[in-house]
Design brief:
homodimer; 133 residues; alpha+beta; 5 helices; DNA-binding
Chain lengths: 133, 133
DNA sequence: ATGAATGCAAAAACTTTGCATGACG
DNA sequence: CGTCATGCAAAGTTTTTGCATTCAT
């Protein structure tokens, strides 16, 4: 289970790391802030410090287990890097985060970078939307 | 000059506001952090507090004079809202910020929001690139 | 056993706010 | 003149770091 995932990326198997991975895997909302994860740990009676949560999430990010997003609003949001690439839509009314995939946009981005003499390494696309009532 | 711009958006004409507007207009780099603006003020022998810089930039944003970006890395970057809409490319080697316009991407974004039953209100697209050497 | 990981508290980085003083219209 | 804006310092947020202790292998 989680132990293998951690070993695979060269991280020692420790209780905080296993627990945080479990929380991310079982979360109702795939997009959690460090604070969210911390609260979930408290909830689960696990005594892990907030500093450790940040450290572990950062390690997970470096290891490619997790993706960090900087949506508007100051704080980072983390998401398990499972599955294929996608971008996000944030509903400004409800705060809901919707994932979407679009190959045309991906292609266009590469094209644009090329046109300017660059290689596209990464990108960040967030649509801020309102539900049409 | 600047006085008119300020009056037009309903802001009292004060020295800090005029100075900050001038700095944004004459900046070598169109994308400045609050700290950058603050340093430019010091440079110009103008005694304006950092808190005022933040307050004024926020007011400018509300007034539509300025656009605030949250690129990766924690701090906000401000840009004069002159001209038409564009997105950004950040060179990961040099830190350069390149502006670009692409109508196809804009259209696709609207389409995607619609497909999910939303209205697109705003968006944030940043391409992280490396120059092909 | 030994080096890495953790918890705590302190610090850092960025931004906002309270309040007395000063400036705009 | 009344009100709004400013400066300063203090507080707020989010994230990082130092260090002694604990844990994994």
């Amino acid at each position: 289970m989680e132990n293998q995932e951690l070993r695979k990326v060269g991280l020692k198997v420790t209780l905080p790391r296993v627990k945080i991975l479990q929380i991310l895997e079982n979360a109702a909302d795939r997009h959690m802030s460090a604070e969210d994860v911390y609260k979930a740990l408290i909830e689960a009676e696990e005594d892990v410090g907030l500093a450790t949560v940040y450290r572990v999430l950062t390690q997970f990010e470096s290891a490619g287990l997790v993706i960090r997003h900087n949506f508007d609003g100051g704080h980072s949001v983390f998401e398990l890097a499972s599955g294929e690439h996608h971008d996000h839509m944030v509903c400004m009314d409800t705060g809901d985060i919707i994932e979407f995939r679009n190959q045309d946009i991906e292609r266009l981005q590469h094209m644009i970078a090329e046109e300017h003499g660059y290689d596209l390494v990464d990108h960040n696309l967030v649509l801020y939307v309102k539900s049409k009532r």
